[in-house]
Amino acid sequence: MYPEDLVMPMKAELTDKGFQDLTTPEEVSSAIKKEGTTLVMVNSVCGCAAGAARPGVVFSLTGDKKPDHLVTVFAGYDGDAVAEARKYMAPFPPSSPSIALFKDGELVHMLERHHIEGNPAGAIAANLQAAYNEYC
């Protein structure tokens, strides 16, 4: 597990923008099963989370359409919550960071680490906005 003083500022990058920080499997299950659309960001300490995933997911929310619910779990810190989120992301393998969009509890769009790594935040945002336009 990563130290708290390292993780908390990275969590705050999302929670300060309206994301709910989920730390238990029960919170994850309840959030994903909510009616409407739920965006789940599996946050991480890696460079692609800092350089593309977190800025991209925040920028994606500037468009006209956006998910009803915004939640996040932190890989390497909130292990049980992350494991629960990944159950809902099957058949995709575990990936950190990753971003999933659910509609009425069903996975409808997924960005894995290999979609994030090496791409700028703007490309991540554009990909997510296209998904919002289709599902939100």
What spatial order of strands do you see in the largest sheet? 1-3-2-4-5
So what's the CATH class?
A: Alpha Beta
**Tally of separate helices:** 6
Task: Give the CATH superfamily.
Answer: Glutaredoxin
Helix content: 40-55%
Indicate the overall shape: globular
**Regions with pLDDT < 50 over 5+ consecutive residues?**
none
Radius of gyration: 13 Å
Mean pLDDT: 96
Specify the structural class: alpha/beta
Oligomeric form:
single chain
Number of strands: 5
Alpha carbon gap, first and last residue:
35 Å
User: The CATH topology is what?
Assistant: Glutaredoxin
How many individual domains? 1
What pattern of helices and strands is seen along the backbone? Answer: HEHEHEHEEHH
Biggest β-sheet strands, sense, barrel: 5 strands, mixed
Q: What is the strand content?
A: 15-25%
What features would you describe in this structure?
The protein has one domain (2-133): Glutaredoxin. Helix 2 (25-32) packs parallel to helix 4 (79-88) and helix 3 packs across helix 6 (121-135). It has 136 residues and is of the alpha/beta class. It is globular and about 40 Å long. It has 6 helices and 5 strands. The relative contact order is 0.22. Helices cover 46% and strands 20% of the residues. Strands 1-3-2-4-5 form a 5-stranded mixed β-sheet, sandwiched between helices. The chain has helices at 4-15, 25-32, 47-59, 79-88, 113-116, 121-135, and strands at 20-21, 37-43, 69-74, 98-103, 106-111. It comes from Chryseobacterium lacus.
